Amino acid sequence: MAFLRGSLNYVWCTTSVLGKGATGSVFQGVNKNTGESVAVKTFNPYSHLRPQDVQMREFEALKKLHHENIVKLLAIEEDQEGRGKVIVMELCTGGSLFNILDDPENSYGLPENEFLLVLEHLCAGMKHLRDNNLVHRDLKPGNIMKFISEDGQTIYKLTDFGAARELDDNQAFVSLYGTEEYLHPDMYERAVLRKQINRSFTANVDLWSIGVTLYHVATGNLPFRPFGGRKNRETMHQITTKKASGVISGTQLSENGPIEWSTTLPSYCHLSEGLKTLVTPLLAGLLEKNRENTWSFDRFFQEVTLILRKIVLHVFFTNRTTSVEVYLEPDEQIDNFRDRIYLQTEVPIEKQILLFNNEHLESRVMSSSISKAFPTTTAESPIFLYSNDDNNVQLPQQLELPKFPVFPTNVSVENDASLAKAACSVGHECKRRIDTFTSMDMLMKRGVEQFIAMLITTITLLLKKTNHIENLLTTTLDYADAVKRLGNMTKNGHELKPILSKLYDLKPNFDVAADVIMQMHKRFVVEDALNDQWSSSMHGKRCPCRTRASPRAKYLVERLRDSWQHLLRDRATRTLTYNDEQFHALEKIKVLRNGDRIKTLLLDDVKPAVAQMAECLADWYKLAQTVFLKTQILEKDIRDYERKLNDLRDKLYHIKSEMKADESTRTNANNNILSKNMQKTLIKKCTNNTRKYWK
Amino acid sequence: MAFLRGSLNYVWCTTSVLGKGATGSVFQGVNKNTGESVAVKTFNPYSHLRPQDVQMREFEALKKLHHENIVKLLAIEEDQEGRGKVIVMELCTGGSLFNILDDPENSYGLPENEFLLVLEHLCAGMKHLRDNNLVHRDLKPGNIMKFISEDGQTIYKLTDFGAARELDDNQAFVSLYGTEEYLHPDMYERAVLRKQINRSFTANVDLWSIGVTLYHVATGNLPFRPFGGRKNRETMHQITTKKASGVISGTQLSENGPIEWSTTLPSYCHLSEGLKTLVTPLLAGLLEKNRENTWSFDRFFQEVTLILRKIVLHVFFTNRTTSVEVYLEPDEQIDNFRDRIYLQTEVPIEKQILLFNNEHLESRVMSSSISKAFPTTTAESPIFLYSNDDNNVQLPQQLELPKFPVFPTNVSVENDASLAKAACSVGHECKRRIDTFTSMDMLMKRGVEQFIAMLITTITLLLKKTNHIENLLTTTLDYADAVKRLGNMTKNGHELKPILSKLYDLKPNFDVAADVIMQMHKRFVVEDALNDQWSSSMHGKRCPCRTRASPRAKYLVERLRDSWQHLLRDRATRTLTYNDEQFHALEKIKVLRNGDRIKTLLLDDVKPAVAQMAECLADWYKLAQTVFLKTQILEKDIRDYERKLNDLRDKLYHIKSEMKADESTRTNANNNILSKNMQKTLIKKCTNNTRKYWK
After folding, report:
1. CATH number of the CATH domain containing B16
2. Which of B68, B90, B112 finishes a domain?
3. Are B579 and A4 an interchain contact pair (Cβ–Cβ within 8 Å)?
4. The whole model's pTM is what?
5. Fewer Cβ neighbours under 10 Å: the N or C end of chain B?
6. What separation, in Å, do the N-terminal and C-terminal C-alpha atoms of chain B show?
């Protein structure tokens, strides 16, 4: 065990390297007494050449900082073999954000939740630095560590304060690490281009680095990309210094070619539209070179706090089979929510049917409720949006799939690993799309269930109400008859006539509505016709939940990654034996085969299956929406009848009260019988009404 | 690569051993053309000494078999260096059932679903053997492989047909593998005890092995355990041959001590009570030595089919915070379900409140529905059972936790790995209990939500109905007044009196009920008092969901397993360097520390927290149950009032119809005003009614 080193309380093995930098290396070690795993930073001979106070500054900075989002200092001890001081820190088992972004899974950036976590933790860590009057000066993904706590939660933590300085301490800074892509243009000028400049670096050199880092996290790419990459230093400097306000990326696609500027995040970025509209101005603010418009730290904290405190509501827009994330201020209400939905889906507010947990959202959320008090939604259990206006269902437009790399047949240990990595990256993109289609499948089905449940409740309540009104109407007619007879004996008789005629008029109209409701109840509640239609149209469909497309995709991506890892190991070995070369060639065959399989799964299986489901859904919704519209009309009519009935009854009561019981009686030949003319009119009206419900 | 071997289309490395047996070894290999991973069985020199036809029989058996639950034969090829034939089979990446049962996670048997999967697949594989007229003769967990398909599903497959014979081929069989625990007593006698016996082995030698295997899978232990284990052959033989019918296990706990017989599965077995009642007779049938009572193969298939076709309904019994699994025949109905619940919980049928998806189960399931058509339940989304009789809530009794092993301080590479494994086994048991408590936490909360939602729906509907009846009552009173006035003018007046008095009587009684309903609606729907009480009593409680106890337990068990693996590697190394010995000692410290932590988490954190929750739930349910009982009384009363009202109205109509409009009028001094006496009686009645609702 010649690789074992130690200090008073810790040992570490120099073969388990966690990271390497200009001043030293970081190894995984353990506490000799407890067995606790730690990270040990040792310094190389070069670093010891630095002035003593410069060396001490990293220790001093670390000792000052105590925050959940700063990697915790456990001890500073002496290497037992006289190699100088070592820094013992808590171990961040998730690696650095650099490693995470370097993984082919994240070639197009991190998922929304992880992006928000980085944003929150980076901001909180930076605030702690700021509160301690420190500038980090070397912020970049490699210095942001992913700590996984014992309860399985991710905490991002800042580390490596080798370049940190007290604010106003304007000592020359030289980027030792070759990660100049994240440097503020002024810093870049001095550290990379070695120009003398007379400006002092304020804390916002860190803000710029945060901006570049966040862009990288959101998209998987750097925002400023000169052709040829890092070597093209002049163009890099030009891009960052020439860029206009509001521009958040600049790319040079050919040698000496033009810079393509953009003020928006690229389409392949995974963030939701709702979050993009919040993040884009943040990035523009951070990547602001112009001193006058530069954000202050406080402004940065404030803007991030505004984003992070928002309430996210997950909506599934059924007519477009699309998940929509709506970011609301905590005190915004359902009207604001509907507004925001309109902006993101173009469904007008009055045409939005919003369902949650089998009922209208408004049954749960009062108009005065603030978004904090809304029910909790998730991507899997969202609010379902149906358009009352549009009975079609369309799949969302999809970006073209990135191309799988082409492998040359000869073995090249140098290239093959990179090509396999590129294949993994496409494989992951295929898997993400398959997962999205699978959740579409699930959400379409849930959306149908919700709509049916809502209709069943609506129709059942409507039928109950109708039965009650029927009962009331019968009683009122009897009542009217009694009052009429009384009227025959009194002088108030003439006032009764219009009331009675209205009442008689009400009855057959109401009966038509009641009959329609009974039929609807029979068809859509008792016989469950909407469910039947859906089930029979979906019968035997190869939907991705049923064909288990997601676990299949997971399997294929894992195999792609296995091959990539094999080729990576081969690259590390450099020269292969004859046998190893055979295995190397086999892995390339597997990459091609598995790449092909996952692509086929997406394009020839899952995608057409979901398209077919969307067609079934469209057919089903044409009926369901008609039923819904009909219930709306019927609800209104039944309410009208109820109001009219109550009104007529009140009038009857009024007349009856005014009647003098001792007045003389008059007979009425038409008692209890409608005139022939009245009957004809009624039949005509009924027919018209029936037509209205079944149009 | 001296370890690389090959055949025409396959290569394998002799360092990647999957398994070793008496006739040969199984290695992981790959197809040279496709890179597909396979298992390659090679034969050792000893096996080649067997007669050629015996050697060929394994190949012949394999070639005959084509079934999902038999490991697939891919090829039989010649070793390129002349070592004889090799069998190439599909690779089962999940290892053998022996490996699975050997894992400390499964020290007390597999979980219910996995048990059922083994049962199903083992039975289907055996059926295929039987259909091909084959007896396996060496069935045991080591010959049952876990195949994980590309879509992530587990398929168990039979393998190793080295000992398989055609039925009636009664050739002597010698257990070469030393796994005699699974042998039928007759086989044991001949193969292990080397006695000459004159009985022929029928297919049910396999049934016995299946019985022992299933007992092992269900409990993690062998059913027949002589003191001293395998070496104690005579006792082993005694146990299996002397055991009575119905006995499924026999254990000897001390040297030459008595055998403890059992007819039931042990209490530590994880299977649900519902499943245990089905599996115990199955095991008793399989482990039947007595030739007269021995099951036939057909009987076995039939019994397993009966078990597997059952519908499982998951119930959470809130008053005992216990999950209950009910196994129903596919054509059984809700009455059978309630019967079965009574048997498993002792809650009488008429006292069972069953809720699913926020409503009474009966709203979804008609009494004629068969269990196949019941809504799908899962352990996380069960039917909630509340007792209408018992307003208390108690945690279920818990078995004592197995003891963590004590580590001697000196390093013993031989023992330490075994002790660490035992510690892992206890750690896994702690984790399982923490997970159970966590799901109790979740289910108690969901149960409360469901009950509240059900009450809100009930009260809301009741209020609606009450309002309708109020409206109807007002109208009927007006109507009565009109008829009364008519009556004053006619001779039918005297018939009216009792009807009117009943109607006047109804009004104040109904008003009391209506008032109570309105108050209940205000308190429990508008003000959501039940929710408030629950939230405020739960406020700040350390429930395991909130403290993330489950992921913590997962973390600690993973650490325990890491240490176990480290100590296992040390055991394989045998002699440790000084440094390695230090690390070895550290791992022991970690085992103790992490073992202690997971135990503390269970006993001092999670368990008291859930006990406290159960107290909150009990307090809450005392109120909630009262409210529920009250709504039941009110529902009945309101139905009564409605019936009475309709009845009175019909009588009024009848009288009115019979009245002759031209009769002379009579005045009634008491018109519209109740007598002093009647008023007194009414007030007394109302007070009584109020008391009834609020007792």
Report:
1. 3.30.200.20
2. B90
3. yes
4. 0.90
5. C
6. 87
